[in-house]
Amino acid sequence: MTAAEGSLETAREIAVGVAREAGRILLEGWGKSTRPAVDFKAGEDINLVTEFDKRSEALIVARLAASFPDDRIVAEEGTTHGADRGAGRVWYVDPLDGTTNFAHGMPLFSVSLGLAIDRRPMLGVVEAPALGWSFAGTAGGGSTFNGNPIAPSQVDQLARALLVTGFPYMRNPIQNNMAEFQALTAAAQGTRRLGSAALDLCFVACGWLDGYWERALHPWDLVGGSAIVIGAGGKATDLDGRAFDGETGRVLATNGRIHEQIVRVLEDVARRGNAPWP
Question: Each residue of 229-277: pLDDT tens digit?
């Protein structure tokens, strides 16, 4: 094991513990007879935030900053730590991915921590506390589900694939994903919308789903799960197959075997003028 690999493994162990601690905060507000109080993010009418997002974020940022004082931390609800150097080591924190599910009592929500190094996803931890599921992975170091190694599916035909996607919170007709959803629903065996990008990516890494695409997201939604996909042996890129960069808010993650088939469908939708193209 190289020094860099050892550093990532140590960071992974720390991040797993932090995510589990944050998950316990989320469980304090989930599944109660009275739903948690919600607010809406500035300028948006369907994107929720709760006190549990904020409490989870505060704990995560404090723990990561104490363990990795030289790293930059960027969290969804606005908390940051460290200087913005444009590259280097950056932790992306989603303290509650799937807030709408959480607020309605659905168990499909998660804590997502991702470490990018020079904009490449290198480490991911995703904790789904209501399900008792913990995912972790490092690029080149393998990925796990509840401590057991995972790998993507072997499906090599798009027509036999089960896909998942999501839709933007902003009611933006240019980024609405409907044309792509229609095209890939017709081309694949089925499509799903589950409401947590981090879990969508983990489910691809586990082989439960064969591919996932989405646009108009943020790096805290994508970096952790993408690192887990890559660590498991899958593929995560931009929608056109170019290198993944969480800052774009776009991702195509697959088992690797159907990747180019999905790229061609997305490209065809864009060619017809029904969707933007990276």
Answer: 999 999 999 999 999 999 999 999 999 999 999 999 999 999 998 788 8
What residue numbers bound the domain in which 207 lies? 158-271
Per-residue pLDDT at 278 exceeds 50: yes
pLDDT value for 171: 60
Q: Is residue 98 located within the same domain as residue 137?
A: yes
pLDDT at site 46: 42
Under the banding of pLDDT at 50, 70 and 90, the label for residue 35 is: low
In angstroms, how far is the first alpha carbon of the chain from the final one? 37
Residues 124 and 251 in one domain: no
